[in-house]
Amino acid sequence: MPGPAPRSSEEQVSHGHGDRLIAALSRDSWMPLAATATGSIATTAVALALPAALAAAVNAVVTGRGALTATAYLALLLAGAALAEVATGITSTTATASAIGTLRLRVAGHLLSADVSGATRFSTGELVNRLVSNTATAGSAPVTLLGTLTGVAASAGAVVALFAVDPRAGLAFLAGTPVLVVVLRVFVSRVSGLYDEYQSAQGRLAARLTETLAGIRTVRAAGTASREIDRVLRPLADLSSTGHALWRAQSRTVWQIMLLMPLVEILVLAVAGLGVAEGRLTPGALVAVAGYAALGLTFVEQIDPLLGLAYGRSAAVRVLEVLALPVLPAGRRRLPDGPGALSFRGVTVTRGDARVLDDVDLEIPAGALTAVVGRSGAGKTTLAMLAGRLTEPDRGRVLLDGLSLSDLEPGCLRDAVAYAFERPALLGGDIASAIAYGTAGTTREAVRAAARAAEVDDVVSRLPLGYDTPSAGAPLSGGEIQRLGLARALLRRARLTILDDATSGLDTVTEAQVTRTLVEGMRGRTRLVVAHRPATAARADLVIWLEAGRVRGRGTHRELWRHRDYRDLFAPDAPDSRGEPHGGEPAGVASRQEASCPR
Known about the structure:
Blueprint: H1 9-12, H2 15-28, H3 30-63, H4 67-113, H5 116-119, H6 124-165, H7 167-214, H8 216-222, H9 225-233, H10 236-277, H11 283-296, H12 303-323, E1 342-351, E2 354-364, E3 369-373, H13 380-387, E4 395-400, E5 403-404, H14 410-416, E6 417-421, H15 431-436, H16 444-453, H17 457-461, H18 478-492, E7 496-500, H19 508-521, E8 526-530, H20 534-539, E9 542-547, E10 550-555, H21 557-560, H22 564-570
Parallel strand pairs: 3-8, 3-9, 6-7, 7-8
Antiparallel strand pairs: 1-2, 1-4, 4-5, 9-10
């Protein structure tokens, strides 16, 4: 079954898709958003009532009638405004936290379900930046949008109230606002593209920093700290350039707004003042006009929320690029008991313009130890990922005991397949939990037995806290970490165990001991091993030789050793027993009495 091929980000997402993501977040957080909206509406209503109440109080003081009542009403409104502000602050914080949490869970869940090969489009640092920073920015957008809408509604209500107090003052207000609206529109349009560039530069900087921190020992050992700092900080030039462009856009807009706003207010107050002079308006009405004119111009203050929305839209696009990664569809079939026979039928995998695997047909015998060999880029790791459905073929099928992996229920598939990787992650907290990770109800004795089989029990026992040692700070070498990953795979006792270069960091003696476990201790279970050493291939029941994505040969190590190209995979310059290159069989194969002689 063909798998979904990743598309370019231009095909996947746009700002329109980002808007839909923000709308979906608003629906998911509707309860706290509704509470925030209620508080915002109450705040707006109080704000619209205050100029009228203040006008009534002024008129009462001027006329000497009802001053106490007007003052009490004004005080009540001010108290209501304070309470509404507090309630809105609490509910808006809750709504923002809810939206951010929902989005982060969605992104994390999508990444854990995505095709592994597709997720490699992004570096670790880039994914962390999008999962942490961009989700926070995008998740804040619904509350920002609500605040913007409330502010615009307050401005519109103030204009209506202004017309109710004095239509002439209202017309004067409308005469000056179109220019402000045009200035704001041009500004928001300009900065939206700049925010895209700014966040992209931030992502590149975060990605490089994460890579450097992960390889800090290599940097120190090579003495390249200064060069690495320069490499990490190289995106700062783009960040600075875009940041300065944003500041220039803001500065041009701010001085225009700061010039236009007072002009509009002066025009409105001049018209209202003439009305007072003519006896058309009361002194209180002049106060109300001033209040409503100021409140009507608060739509200009929405420039910061509008910038936040532009930033949120840009962040939403970056989050959607992660959510657009292809996800492996879940099957529903259960896997019945079986011996663990693995089949590849017409499997083709394409990455970009290159075919990583090209029409591969393979039968991996049940219960056998099968080694996969080939040069770098031959497709070994891709084959290993396909075997446990960490990725999907673009064409063809992979079957386990006659059932297509794409048809199997994910939990059932994970129970049937165990993996050990070249660089395993020690998840779970402590060493014991790292070994038992993904295996429920495991006893400590079972964990130790798996560690003994992987030749790592003595290493763990020498640690001060033994198996309770926190895995994050455990003083372990790369080979010892590999053995812990191998122990985790052995503990699963799955019908199919896949080792993707999982013994490359072991010394020769330890690898021989571990290989003995693979050969003898796991007899009867299917094992697929990506191998780089001839000793591992020599002990395998079957060797699959890949070259440029195709099966170049299959057979035992002894049979394939007759091919010069096969011998070159392991020791291209190694002389044979007669001192001539490739004249004889490899060490461990020449003598029938040696333990490494293939069966």
